[in-house]
């Protein structure tokens, strides 16, 4: 079994009304083009959030 991410600290959020956005992105920097890959990944995630109905403030706050 792989690593387990502990998310118990998020439990208080569930008692608050949404909507919310949560983003988990693999962010390794082990390659020469890591900065370019990160920028592409950020744009892709932003587009997905917008498509899901997130407002501009929410999209900006994820980074």
Quick gist of this model?
This protein is mainly α and 63 residues long. It contains 2 helices and no strands.
Structural write-up:
The chain is mainly alpha-helical and 63 residues long. Helices cover 38% and strands 0% of the residues. It contains 2 helices and no strands. The model has no long low-confidence stretch (mean pLDDT 85).
Our count of helices gives 2
Which percent range fits the helix content? 25-40%
> What's the mean pLDDT score?
85
The largest pleated sheet is described as:
none
Strand share of the residues?
under 5%
* SS content category: mainly alpha
Order of helices and strands: HH
Number of strands: 0
Tell me the quaternary state: single chain
Shape: flat
CA-CA gap between termini? 30 Å
Unreliable residue runs: none
- Give the radius of gyration: 14 Å
Feature tags:
mainly alpha; 63 residues; single chain; 2 helices
SSE inventory with pairings:
Elements: H1 34-51, H2 56-61
